[in-house]
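Q: Here's a chain of 458 amino acids. Please give me its 3D structure as tokens.
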Amino acid sequence: MAIATINPATGTTVRTFPELSEAEVEQKIGFAHDTWLTYRGTGFGERAELMRACADLFEKEADATARLMTTEMGKTLASARAEALKCARGMRYYADHAAEFLADEPLADPSAVGAKRALGRYQPLGVVLAVMPWNFPMWQVMRFAAPALMAGDVGLLKHASNVPQCALYLEDVFRRAGFPEGCFQTLLISSRQVEAILRDPRVVAATLTGSEPAGRSVAAICGDEVKHTVLELGGSDPFVVMPSADLDRAVETAVDGRVQNNGQSCIAAKRFIVHADIYDAFTERFVARMRGLRVGDPFDPSTDVGPLATEQGRADVEELVDDAVAAGATVLCGGRRPDGPGWFYPPTVITGITRDMRIFAEEAFGPVASVYRAADIEEALEIANATGFGLGSNAWTDDEAEQERFSSDLEAGQVFINGKTISYPELPFGGVKRSGYGRELSAHGIREFCNLKTVWVG
């Protein structure tokens, strides 16, 4: 795939970029490693000052940054601006809390291990490669970069090939904030160059957010090299609605959750599992709201859903819908691409899904919702967990016993009850099963790329 900005609303190429040569990549790895040797010795106070300066720039430049994101991957301008501001919030969170999260952990009774003093100490690992996706081109990167830089690590970014200007902005904004230039570098490279970087002994770990095949590849290489990885892969999140739920709020959140980011979010609700007693009422309202959404220019404030980010992404969504329809599923709204330029696809609702359809097992990365009928909580949980993914999940019920049951039995890294699944700096983020392993955000996220060293003093 060429490294290029291609406006998804028009399909026109805006700008192309050359790939770095092997020699240029080698130079950047060396620069990163040399920078880390000195940067790891800085204190939390100095790092926090730099991180807050970076947050200031993100806030000041949020409008311009939003336009860049919208141009490159098609998210609505309002959601792009919110993403820029969320990055600033994440940076400030780690600036405020890194010292606390990585403080020494002394053993309460060191005499129990025959020591005068014993503790655990968090220390940075070194150069970390981040392989990042296009769907949240700033926030996905920042939820790695902010904790890693505050921990004393340095980063190399291999961003998605369709958001090169976002990638270059990220390198530039860290530099302008005052971080040493080698602390965070963007590598404009193709996927075929990743393996050599992962095998370089100066690169000590990797984090990837993206597709399952990409995650398997990075995990296999790092496993061979015995290097630490964090993987956040796909999701096919369930959204369960029970009879005691506030139906109006559930429908409103269901629509928002399905079409957020033009339907291109790993933690977007994708499979709507509704109790039989309220199935008809929910589905009628849900379809009406989905049908009423405005699809169009993501720069237009009245637009609800912009284009999909890539031509191949739209083709993948179409194939899933067409396969389901050919096998007997019913399309209640949407289901056909509009005429005209750009990679638009309408909000779509499908029912009558059976287990032999691809959409039952695969992630629909676009504004396509599958609706299932469940007779009771047991069937709802069975349908919800009948997937290889386990990233986020939603359940709507005012029954406390049901709330506890969903919290316990939904197979996911996150369970949100009566609310939209969202990533927060304060909460750990990650999945189970084929959705990956490891955690981002919260105290757990900053500790992922640290060596927890045992110190024993006799």
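Q: Can you summarize the key feature?
A: The first strand starts at residue 4 and ends at 7.
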